[in-house]
Design goal:
The structure holds 2 protein chains of 2 kinds. By secondary structure, chain A is α+β, with helices and mostly antiparallel strands. Chain A contains 5 helices and 12 strands. Chain A has a single domain, classed as paralog of FGE (formylglycine-generating enzyme), CATH 3.90.1580. In chain A, strand 9 and strand 10 form a beta hairpin. The radius of gyration of chain A is 20 Å and the shape is globular. In chain A, 36% of the residues are buried. By secondary structure, chain B is an alpha/beta fold. In chain B, strands 11-10-13-17-15-16 form a 6-stranded mixed β-sheet, with no helix packed on it. In chain B, strands 1, 2, 3, 5 and 7 form a 5-stranded mixed β-sheet that branches. Chain B has 6 helices and 19 strands. Chain B is 14% helix and 32% strand. The chains are: A alpha+beta, B alpha/beta. Chains A and B meet through helix 5 of A and strand 18 and strand 19 of B.
Chain lengths: 267, 373
């Protein structure tokens, strides 16, 4: 915020909200929820396979490596347009005339430009959350997207048909309405808007993990350029994609919209 | 599959035929006979069969090989103007529909049968409509004899003299293109009396028949790029024609909406099923392709007096034409049936899925090395 008028306005808000925000925050900051490392049970991200066949990712006890503060709500269109006005972000693919809606139609690269702008603006480090950080914040609203069907080595179509039917069920129940930020739901941590019509980018690259019959990891490789987007199910999306509705493959249900929220590294 | 209400007379005529071969020969002879002009008295004496149409992609019950001689096959369709949703992005259109669906239902008769259609224009409609059957002879395909205003009905009878799959569509004077791209089209299949045949005369029966109607839509947008919506079909006319004239559809879809034949509504088959796909496009060229399969028997231009092409990868159906493809599924899995202009398939909507269950055949395909470093 560079104009005196805005500074004054920010200062006023800062005074009102002192109890929520650290004193050094210059104001106009999003509301944040602090996450402290603590173990929780999590279905790992990525494509896991055994003997060339797809298997469910294992459930492991994980914890975030260090405390972070995560945005209570996704970045709104109003927030985003401020970055656009500052010349640090480009116009989103989604609607721009409803500032209260979460911003949609942003690529992974767009989201990182916003994080860089926030970092520059505040002096703190802002970035996309990892899959584990996002899952921690989603808490009981995180959806286990495992298929629950193991590959049949003799008939790969068993898995394809099961996946297809699971996706058909998902899209049947899909709520396609993008609602104003903060209005969808709230979880036990006070984090809002988990799992609606907007999928959220993470900093986690798509990984492929080969395991043996005992579950031991034989090989693990990452494809950075494809990132995990979190929502009703996890999706792996190319970093330049803004509209996942097109750009899907020949079968399968893509995310409805792409948005994000950021974490601030704890001070 | 059998015709639902075959008259007693027809059954008796069928029973008189001894054995399949003689049945084929007799049917062929009858076909020649019925192509001579029939007087109205002749038609009056023919058996009448009433068919209840069903919504695409399904097709009413019918015989593949006709039992007995020509019949008068009665159909009834009510024209409905209705707002339909094309996708999840708020795209809606006032569709004009034959019988409430885009496309209209597939009608099936045999060569030499008489099609007798009662066409009702619902009183709640706004527009005049009619029907032009590409399978009919004369009067602009029947269009000149079937102009009905809202609240009126008409009955048209025509003789199905050419075997094949054919488009039918609404063709009111001055507004043909608009009605057609508002969804007002369908198809009729006129089977040879002795059923479908391959190049060497071998029978080509099918276990299942699906009807895919491909539709290009031209939706206006407002200055912000959002889809415009209208309170009535008439109000959308001028804007829509402006988009139509760009020849650039905003949607190219199967069966009236993006995803109408996917997910819960995907087509189904089992390994070993011989599945026939009728594909019509009343306005625009298309090039169907079954991803992971083939067109075993293809009548791309849909007319059964021509030999089918065999084992195709992609086939071309010119706008204003219906085609037929028959394929026997050999592997289980999810097949995508697409317009192989892949932009139209995956960006504009022209993609359907077939869920196929059964045993995997390693001889046809096997993964030798899974993707690995």
């Amino acid at each position: 915020m560079h104009t005196p008028v805005t500074l004054l306005a920010s200062a006023a808000i800062g005074v009102l909200s002192l109890s929520f925000w650290p004193a050094k925050a210059p104001g106009n900051l999003p509301q944040l929820v602090r996450l402290d490392p603590a173990p929780f049970s999590h279905r790992l991200d990525g494509d896991w396979q055994r003997d060339g066949g797809q298997v469910n990712a294992p459930i492991r006890s994980v914890q975030i490596p260090a405390p972070v503060e995560i945005m209570e709500m996704p970045v709104s269109t109003g927030d985003w347009m401020a970055c656009v006005r500052d010349g640090a972000c480009i116009a989103p693919g989604g609607p721009t005339d409803r500032p209260e809606l979460p911003v949609t139609g942003v690529s992974w690269m767009d989201a990182n430009a916003y994080a860089a702008w926030m970092t520059k603006r505040t002096g703190d480090t802002w970035r996309l959350p990892s899959d584990v950080e996002w899952a921690h914040a989603a808490a009981e609203l995180f959806r286990d997207d495992a298929l629950g069907v193991e590959a049949d080595p003799a008939n790969p179509a068993v898995l394809w048909l099961a996946e297809y039917n699971a996706e058909a069920t998902r899209s049947r129940n899909l709520d396609r309405e993008v609602r104003p930020v903060g209005s969808l739901n709230v979880n036990s941590l006070g984090v809002r808007d988990i799992g609606g019509a907007v999928w959220e980018w993470t900093s986690t690259c798509l990984r492929r993990v080969d395991v043996d019959g005992t579950g031991a990891v034989l090989r693990e490789g990452e494809t950075c350029g494809i990132y995990i987007a979190e929502g009703l199910h996890r999706a792996a999306i190319n970093d330049f994609v803004r509209d996942p509705k097109s750009g899907g493959c020949s079968v399968g249900v893509p995310p409805a919209n792409l948005g994000f929220r950021l974490v601030r590294e704890a001070i | 599959m059998t015709m639902p209400s075959v008259s007693r007379r027809t059954i008796l005529a069928g029973a008189a035929l001894a054995g399949a071969l003689s049945q084929v020969r007799t049917a062929a002879a009858e076909t020649t006979a019925v192509l001579t002009s029939a007087t109205p008295t002749d038609v009056e004496s023919l058996p009448r069969v009433k068919v209840k149409l069903v919504d695409p992609p399904f097709v009413h019950e019918h015989e593949q090989i006709a039992t007995g001689g020509p019949k008068v096959v009665q159909f009834e369709m009510t024209i409905q103007e209705k707002k339909i949703k094309l996708d999840d992005s708020g795209a809606e259109i006032w569709a004009s529909t034959f019988n409430g669906t885009v496309p209209g239902p597939l009608m099936v008769v045999h060569e030499g049968d008489y099609v007798e259609l009662t066409l009702i224009n619902a009183p709640t409609n706004e527009l005049m409509h009619n029907i032009d059957f590409h399978s009919a002879t004369g009067a602009l395909g029947g269009g000149a004899l079937t102009q009905v205003n809202p609240g009126e009905k008409t009955i048209l009878r025509f003789k199905a003299t050419k075997p094949g799959v054919f488009v039918y569509h609404c063709a009111p004077p001055g507004m043909v293109a608009w009605h057609v791209v508002s969804g007002m089209n369908g198809a009729i299949m006129v089977l040879p009396r002795d059923g479908l045949k391959g190049r060497d005369g071998e029978p080509v029966p099918y276990d299942k028949l699906y009807y895919i109607g491909e539709q290009d839509f031209y939706l206006p947008r407002d200055e912000k790029g959002n889809w415009k919506t209208y309170a009535s079909p008439g109000e959308s006319y001028e804007d829509t024609v402006a988009v139509m004239k760009t020849l650039t559809p905003t949607h190219v879809v199967f069966n009236g909406a993006v995803g109408a034949l996917t997910g819960d509504n995907a087509m189904t088959a089992k390994v070993g099923d011989r599945v026939a796909f009728v594909h019509s496009q009343a306005n625009r060229d298309t090039r169907p392709h079954l991803i992971g399969g083939h067109g075993n028997y293809v009548w791309a231009t849909g007319k059964f007096n021509n030999p089918p092409e065999l084992g195709l990868e992609t086939w071309f159906i010119p706008g204003g034409t219906a085609g037929l493809m028959v394929y026997t599924f050999e592997q289980p899995g999810i097949y995508a049936y697409v317009n192989h202009n892949l932009i139209e398939a995956f960006e504009l909507g022209a993609a359907a899925h077939v869920k196929v269950e059964g045993e995997w055949n390693d001889d046809l395909m096997k993964q030798i090395l899974a993707p690995s470093a």
